[in-house]
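Q: Structure for this?
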Amino acid sequence: EPEVTQTPSHQVTQMGQEVILRCVPISNHLYFYWYRQILGQKVEFLVSFYNNEISEKSEIFDDQFSVERPDGSNFTLKIRSTKLEDSAMYFCASSERDYGYTFGSGTRLTVV
Amino acid sequence: AQTVTQSQPEMSVQEAETVTLSCTYDTSESNYYLFWYKQPPSRQMILVIRQEAYKQQNATENRFSVNFQKAAKSFSLKISDSQLGDTAMYFCAFRLGGATNKLIFGTGTLLAVQP
């Protein structure tokens, strides 16, 4: 069964550093998303991406965050100048139109 | 704005028994989708079942079925013949029709299946 692949599975970074979380969506999917889940809390929407541009973003997704699809397969989330409160599980997802998402297995980001 | 409410933070069920997890939602739209996702200790998000709002028939996937009450805006998940591997956090989620629309999650129900 097709999968969404996320790397790395766990990343530890110093506060103030930049991190890039990587995702390879399912090849025939056209819609891409990033979500985050702070430990013990619910899953929160960050951003959706279609046709090489952001289609929707949440209030969480401020200037500290950016997304990019640098080639035909990867979809990245960049977090500039990380803060302690950015520590969370970050999920990438992709979908076909009107189908349920397929989520990746997540990247656990720890900011120290 | 759409909201999703899961009023049961934790539930427990004996192996082989049946359990029902509750979910209510609020929307003024008519075209939407509802989902249940399972999150085991590995924290991966796994789609369990989906329901299109325009379909009257309740969705079923093996031991998992839903009771979709559109007028009441209720979407409960029934797990039959519970297995130890069903132990997980279960999230109810809502999505408007239109491919780029976000998923809105409830706060989750932690289900423990007891041997």
